[in-house]
Amino acid sequence: MNTVVTPGEAMDAIHDLEGAHPGFRALHAKGSLYRGTFTAGSAAVTLSSAAHLDGRTVPALVRFSNGSGDPTRADNVPHVRGMAVKFTLPDGKTTDISSQTARLFTASTPDGFVEFLRAAKPGLATPLRLAKYATQNPALVRTLKVNAVAAKIPASYATIEYHALHAFRWSDASGGSRFVRYHWVPEAGEHFISLLAARSKGHDFLNDDLDARLGEAPVRFTLQVQIAGLDDSTVDPSVAWTSEERVTIGTLEIVGLETEREHDGDVVVFDPMRVTAGIEASDDPILHFRSLAYSESVRLRSGISRGPDAPN
Ligand code: HEM
């Protein structure tokens, strides 16, 4: 199915839901940048020839965020959280992984997602609109149960898994290829707090917690890839894969706050379409639409047009 909705219409739907906040990302508006490194283990190179997966240690820029478009959103209420990672390749270019705490996406297409945003727009008719949307869009109902974890409040940004949801094709040096989905698994394990306990936590407790942890020691995540089975969809991020085959790819080590970036006109964009040799985007229409929507958000927040060459 071809995408009908435009990136501009997606921005309008987001702004109607979350408000327009000039200078901020349209979604995931509240977030902080951290620096660290990524080192792949020996299994990575057997699956992809990508330069950052050959075992050397490469620099990584990481942004943890609240999924809301409101930059003042408190940390102690439920919401999806984001973890975006930018790896610097040996030639100075970068490649990104953009992930969030939901295990499946709520829609199968960009049109479906924007329709969902419109249905969720606050107002008297919202429950009715959402009920109608749910009956017409089985993806939402299918994903609600499995995404319950994303509605819980993590004890820390460092104690919850993040999932990139889309399929990417990894090619190795011998000409073999396979589709994979990415999962970031916290070294500290998954830990949550109750809604009651969250009430006594501060407005920015997730950032405060992470900064305190980093004052003591690095925070680590393992990158795992799930390898698609024969019947697993490579174009629909709202459908779970049946394959349970997971391979550990490497370790992300976060060491501290990144204080140099995003000042004096510096613009950081995490774009899931920013891949590199050895990794290809699948035909998932949501994956492709995201790049266009992010460019529109970047234009609105910074005035910069990423141009026809985006995302590279
Ligand atoms: C059609 C579907 C989607 C739309 C329209 C959308 C829209 C947006 C927009 C406008 C931004 C702000 C971009 C910027 O200004 O740099 C954003 C950020 C983000 N999105 Fe999405 N998104 C979609 C799907 C997804 C999915 C499937 C994921 C996770 C797998 C995701 C994860 C994120 C993350 C982690 C960020 C924050 C990136 C950062 O820290 O800079 N989004 N999204």
Describe, in short, the structure shown:
This is Catalase-related peroxidase. This protein has 312 residues and is of the alpha+beta class. It has helices at 7-18, 44-47, 110-120, 126-136, 138-146, 195-199, 205-216, 285-302; strands at 30-40, 57-66, 81-88, 94-100, 153-154, 162-163, 168-171, 177-186, 192-193, 219-227, 246-257, 279-281.
Query: What fraction of residues sit in β-strands?
Result: 25-35%
CATH topology term: Catalase HpII,  Chain A, domain 1
Shape assignment: globular
Alpha-beta classification: alpha+beta
The tally of helices reads: 8
The small-molecule ligands in this entry are: protoporphyrin IX containing FE
Series of secondary-structure elements, N-terminal to C-terminal: HEHEEEHHHEEEEEHHEEEH
**Level-2 CATH architecture:** Beta Barrel
The N- and C-terminal alpha carbons lie at a distance of: 26 Å
Measured as a percent range, the helix fraction is 25-40%
Radius of gyration of CA atoms, rounded to a whole number = 19 Å
CATH class: Mainly Beta
Main attributes?
single chain, 312 residues, alpha+beta, Catalase HpII,  Chain A, domain 1, ten-stranded antiparallel β-sheet, two-stranded antiparallel sheet, 8 helices, 12 strands, globular, binds protoporphyrin IX containing FE
